[in-house]
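Async update (no meeting this week)

Hi team, since we skipped the sync, here's where things stand on the single-chain job. The sequence we agreed to prioritize is pasted below, unchanged from the tracker. I ran it this morning and attached the output directly underneath so nobody has to dig for it. Comments welcome in thread, and please keep replies under the output.
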Amino acid sequence: MHNVHLQQPPLAQYKCAIGYEFPWGHILERRVNQYVVWDFCLSQLLMHYLRVGKRLEDCQKQVFTALERTFDCTTRDLFALVGLSKAWQLCPSSSVGMFSQVAHFTAEQQAREWVVSELMAALPDIIACAQRIVAKTE
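Output:
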């Protein structure tokens, strides 16, 4: 049985990634077959969670729950991404980021425009919500 994950180190898929830095963290952009994947890494928020003894997974859950309340283009069903065509979805991330946006190459430009016009505008509130939740557990 052929297993790509056994033949490559976990971060090898990021070898040709492009990064975009922001005050709240960074976005890693990579291409996987016919998809463009943006991993949103909210490093400032993650550091806050780690300082109070929480884990990356705790932070990811809070952020994605806030995304689900805010946008209708989210999915937890990663198999739904396989058939994605002419569209994009937000999905839970791996061990690298808080969440990912997966876009079919035919929807790449629209996905980029949506990030700039919609997601970036909502991100400060999503981060603030996740910070308030962890502050309650301190």
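Quick observations from my side:
Residues 108-136 form the longest helix (29 residues).
The CA atoms of residues 5 and 12 lie 10 Å apart.
Reply here if anything looks off.
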